[in-house]
């Protein structure tokens, strides 16, 4: 096993397109790090630079204590699992898993033992004689995982390995991946655009936008304390609600004005928000922190809205509303709600879960300063 350190890594493609910019990340020995962000943000390019499949424009990459900038992919002792499985179609599953071991001159008996152990672990013992064309997507992904496991590398690199699987299989395979990491403890970097995968798998999450790191922290820390509006809106299903309005101070209390409604903000925010008095800002609140019932200990903080769409999703109901100012938002509430389209309602906001952002697209979360 080994830690991975990226220092100011930058990648500029021909045509002057900067895919990755000043990317600095320290992945501890044995850590499961997830790099998450929208398509085209530079996640896969970063992973390929770690593997040595893509040259850097500038910066340094260390694996363990070794600088690997000029080390060939085969000598970096990493195993990569690709989105499209990348299995040899003319070889059966056993041969695919054995190929890298054979190239490294691992004795046949040892190869057979490693493959047998990995196949048993992944539940594919009965598939070893089949070629990829005779396997389902989930089975092919297990073979690809097995091929990585048998190498016993210092580092696992996963490039959106579950994106081609159906929803049910993604969930079960995700759990298996987490179990495998708990068993082997191999340093792992996992790239995905799926925020649910990121939240469930990562010991830490690195959120990326346009080739730049926005925030790196534990899953719940990123979810509950997003550093900016982009991170807040990217994580969460449904995503965080954003209300445009202004900050106002009255009777030694801070309020956020949305149209004709005024939401009282916690006293702990008062000092840090003082400099924004009267300014246009953005209030962020997650759907689960808005309710048709008052929150314990709160008697105000209601906003007025009209129900637009009621969408049952099983363990909750998502209700889409339009505020009297015309702004749209969504709440996640009791699945047995009686709310219907066109109902005029009051919705209560939990003030302790409010975030205030600067109004620009990736506006800073000013409430973190408290």
Question: Main traits of this protein?
Answer:
elongated, OB fold (Dihydrolipoamide Acetyltransferase, E2P), 370 residues, Rossmann fold, alpha+beta, 2 domains
Q: How far apart are the termini?
A: 39 Å
Globally, the shape reads elongated
Helix content: 10-25%
Q: How many individual domains?
A: 2
H/E element order: EEEHEEEHHHEHEHEEHHEEEHEEEEEEE
Descriptive notes:
The chain is α+β, with helices and mostly antiparallel strands and 370 residues long. It folds into two domains: 4-234, Rossmann fold (3-Layer(aba) Sandwich), CATH 3.40.50; 241-369, OB fold (Dihydrolipoamide Acetyltransferase, E2P) (Beta Barrel), CATH 2.40.50. The chain has helices spanning 43-51, 93-103, 108-122, 137-149, 167-184, 195-201, 219-224, 229-234, 270-273, and strands at residues 4-13, 17-27, 32-36, 58-63, 66-67, 78-81, 155-159, 187-192, 204-209, 212-217, 241-250, 253-258, 261-264, 280-285, 290-291, 302-312, 317-323, 328-333, 344-349, 355-357. The strands form four sheets. The chain has a six-stranded mixed sheet with strand order 6-7-8-3-9-10, sandwiched between helices. The longest helix is centred in the middle third of the chain and has 18 residues, at 167-184. The protein is elongated, with a radius of gyration of 25 Å. The protein starts with a strand and ends in a 13-residue tail after the last strand. The mean pLDDT is 92.
């Amino acid at each position: 096993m080994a830690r991975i350190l990226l220092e100011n890594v930058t990648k500029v493609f021909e045509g002057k397109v900067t895919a990755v910019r000043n990317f600095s990340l320290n992945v501890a020995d044995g850590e499961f790090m997830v790099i998450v962000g929208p398509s085209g943000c530079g996640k896969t390019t970063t992973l390929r630079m770690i593997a040595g499949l893509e040259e850097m424009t500038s910066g340094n990459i260390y694996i363990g204590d070794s600088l690997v900038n000029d080390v060939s992919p085969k000598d970096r002792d990493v195993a990569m699992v690709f989105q499209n499985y990348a299995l040899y179609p003319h070889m059966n599953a056993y041969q695919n898993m054995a190929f890298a071991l054979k190239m490294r001159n691992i004795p046949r008996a040892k190869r057979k033992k490693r493959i047998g152990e990995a196949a048993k672990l992944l539940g594919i013992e009965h598939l070893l004689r089949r070629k990829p064309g005779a396997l389902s997507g989930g089975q092919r992904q297990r073979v690809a995982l097995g091929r990585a496991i048998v190498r016993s590398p210092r580092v696992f690199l996963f490039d959106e390995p579950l994106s081609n699987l159906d929803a049910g299989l993604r969930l079960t395979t995700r759990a298996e991946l987490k179990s495998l990491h708990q068993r082997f403890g191999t340093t792992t970097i996992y790239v995905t655009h799926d925020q649910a995968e990121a939240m469930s798998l990562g010991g830490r999450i690195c959120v990326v936008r346009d080739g730049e790191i926005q925030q790196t922290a534990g899953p719940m820390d990123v979810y509950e304390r997003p550093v900016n509006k982009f991170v807040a809106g990217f994580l969460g299903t449904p995503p965080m609600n954003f209300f445009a309005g202004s900050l106002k101070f009255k009777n030694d209390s801070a309020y956020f004005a949305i149209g004709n409604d005024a939401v009282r903000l916690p006293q702990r925010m008062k000092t840090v928000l003082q400099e924004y008095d009267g300014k246009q800002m953005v209030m962020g609140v997650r759907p689960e922190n808005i309710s048709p019932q008052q929150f314990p200990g709160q008697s105000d903080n209601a906003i007025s809205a009209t129900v637009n769409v009621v969408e049952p999703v099983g363990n909750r109901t998502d209700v889409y509303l339009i505020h009297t100012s015309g702004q749209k938002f969504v709440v996640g509430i009791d699945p047995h709600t009686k709310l219907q389209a066109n109902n005029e309602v009051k919705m209560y906001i939990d003030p302790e879960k409010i975030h205030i952002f600067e109004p620009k697209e990736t506006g800073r979360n000013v409430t973190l300063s408290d």
